[in-house]
Amino acid sequence: MTAAPQGPGLSTSVEALRLREWLLGPGQATLVMDQFSADDFHLVVDDRADVHVNSKDGSFYLGWFPSGRPGTNGEGWKIAVTGTAKVRGYQMSFDTETPADVVAAAVACVLDTSQRV
Fold first, then answer.
1. In the predicted structure, residue 17 carries a pLDDT above the cut 90
2. Is residue 15 within 8 Å of 32, Cβ to Cβ?
3. What is the full DSSP assignment across 28-61?
4. Are the C-beta atoms of residues 13 and 1 closer than 8 Å to each other?
5. What are the residues whose beta carbons fall under 8 Å from the beta carbon of 10, sequence distance 6 or more?
6. Most exposed: 36, 39, 65, 74, by fewest CB within 10 Å?
7. What is the helix (H) or strand (E) element at residue 86, kind and residue range?
8. Contact (Cβ atoms closer than 8 angstroms) between residue 37 and residue 49
9. Following CA atoms 28, 93, 40, 83 in sequence, which dihedral angle do they give, to the nearest 10 degrees?
10. Maximum distance among all Cα pairs of the chain, rounded to whole angstroms
11. What is the pLDDT of residues 73-92, one digit of tens each?
């Protein structure tokens, strides 16, 4: 069923207005961690049980902070890529309740765009 506007405006369907269910909750961190191989990355678990992954060349970092990163307001994931002399690097953060599926997709995209030099 489509509702036609009475005047200027948008028309939509009842189906388009239906509520959606969204992926919620932190999920399984292994979805993220399983993307890293020991051949290319170092993995360290510290005394707080936070997990740190670095590329062997040091240009990529991923931190997982299940209880929140110290000094932040609920940061659960941190991804950073070091820049070059000509191009700035970047970083992104996700809170502790961001689904691991979402973080895994971001990590997959970053890893897929990397190139060996």
1. no
2. no
3. -THHHHTT--TTTEEEEE-TTS-EEEEETTSSEE
4. yes
5. none
6. 39
7. none
8. no
9. 170
10. 64
11. 999 999 999 999 999 999 99
